[in-house]
Amino acid sequence: MRRVLPSTQALACFESAARHISYTKAAQELSLTQSAVSRQIIALEEFVGVALFKRTRHGVLLTDAGLHYAKQVGRWLQGLERDTLDLMSHQGEGGPINLAAVPTFATRWLLPRLPQLAQQHPDITVHIDVQTRPFLFADTVFDAALYAGTPEQVARWPGVQAQWLMDEEVVPVCSPQLLATAQQRDLGRAWLPVGPEVIARLPLLQQSTRPQGWRQWFDAMHVDAPRALDGMRLELFSMLAVAASQGLGVALVPPMLIEQELARGDLIIACPQPLRGNRAYYLVTPALAADAQPSPALRVFSQWLQGRAQEIRGGKTE
């Protein structure tokens, strides 16, 4: 079946002119004459049967249709350029993976492990962009997503298949200095854990996206905590980790996201009683037809990722 596609030259001229709102600047960027750019855009408008620019005495302006189409074309050209550069750099072997990921999980768990992937599979390159909400893969260049959410949220994500990686468990963490001061201990004994009733008396750091987190933890521990909703509010686990390491309070954080802080001694697990919520981490990919297969690079990455998740589930953290 013949595809209904305009020429890439016409698209490149249109995208540049739309970005600059100027045929002259587009011509300078593309090393063409202004008349050549104008001809390409006229040909594109004739091809699609829609006016993309309106001409004024002072130059050109995008029509509503042109503004919408320019956003789409810009994304398509960017993806095409990225794939072309990847093909050139890999000389046809291996390949890239365009990954959408929740930021803290990507920064603190995935990135420290990617050198292992690079060593085992040097022909695979992972590109990562931040994405926290479900999206339509058809509207993006992403091949997969690392997503944190509930099973219900994953089930409502249309047109995808999801591989469960691990559940999210949080524990109270703080700086050793905070716990030593609160318990009137010397710093050398600060690593000794305390009970939930002691945590209830310490300053708490709240996660703004999970305002009931501490209350749920204290309820699970069967401890009365009148101040469970009090304390500084921060959005991301990474923010909570920094605030806790600076002695500002106790935070509920998954240990797998603070491995470096725990190893350095900047943070300690104040009470080793975890709370498992209904959130988990998933590798989400577009649903494929029954006879279709994922790309070799994505298949290898998926298997490698499952192995790293198994290490966490088995209690190992590298």
UniProtKB/TrEMBL annotation:
SUPFAM superfamilies named in the record: Periplasmic binding protein-like II, Winged helix' DNA-binding domain
Annotated transmembrane regions: none
Keyword NADP: no
Gene Ontology MF terms: DNA-binding transcription factor activity; sequence-specific DNA binding
InterPro entries, per the entry: LysR-type_TF_proteobact-type, LysR_HTH_N, LysR_subst-bd, WH-like_DNA-bd_sf, WH_DNA-bd_sf
HTH lysR-type domain: residues covered: 6-63
Keywords: DNA-binding, Transcription, Transcription regulation
Keyword Transcription regulation among record annotations: yes
Gene Ontology biological process: DNA-templated transcription
Similarity comment: family membership: Belongs to the LysR transcriptional regulatory family.
Name of the protein described by the UniProt record: Gcv operon activator
